[in-house]
């Protein structure tokens, strides 16, 4: 018999489901975050905001640069509120406000503009 056997727990998602531990961590201010995990979460939140805003801006026929600026303000405000109010992380541990607010910004602008233009063009022309 081998006495040095160790038991490993598999915390990976199974059957396409995310474990409740991961979801509860998203709203837990006491949870510990490393830079990559927090960056991934902020990136995907921003992508979701970009998708929703692009669909909304395209369905309601908004045109003009003011709506791009409004998207940037809304997206950055949601990200700032999430990491500073909900998670209460020390932003200096993750590179400061600039690094956290920039996480996923350019990809989200691309998603936002793509969805906005496609929905606007398909719905109103």
UniProtKB/TrEMBL annotation:
This is Rab5-interacting protein. It comes from the Eukaryota. Keywords: Endoplasmic reticulum, Membrane, Transmembrane, Transmembrane helix. The keyword ATP-binding does not apply. Belongs to the EMC6 family. It is found in: Endoplasmic reticulum membrane. GO terms for biological process: mitochondrial respirasome assembly. It is a multi-pass membrane protein. The keyword rRNA processing does not apply. The chain crosses the membrane at residues 55-85, 105-123. Its main location: endoplasmic reticulum. One of its GO terms (cellular component) is endoplasmic reticulum membrane.
């Amino acid at each position: 018999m081998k006495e040095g056997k160790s038991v490993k727990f598999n915390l990976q998602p199974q059957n396409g489901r995310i474990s409740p531990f991961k979801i509860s961590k998203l709203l837990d201010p006491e949870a510990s975050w490393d830079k990559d995990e927090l960056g991934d979460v902020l990136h995907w939140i921003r992508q979701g905001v970009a998708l929703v805003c692009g669909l909304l801006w395209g369905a309601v026929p908004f045109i003009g640069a003011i709506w791009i600026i409004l998207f940037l303000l809304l997206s950055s405000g949601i990200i700032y509120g999430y990491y500073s109010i909900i998670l209460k992380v020390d932003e200096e541990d993750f590179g400061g406000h600039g690094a956290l607010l920039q996480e996923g910004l350019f990809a989200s602008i691309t998603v936002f503009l793509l969805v906005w233009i496609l929905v606007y063009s398909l719905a109103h022309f």
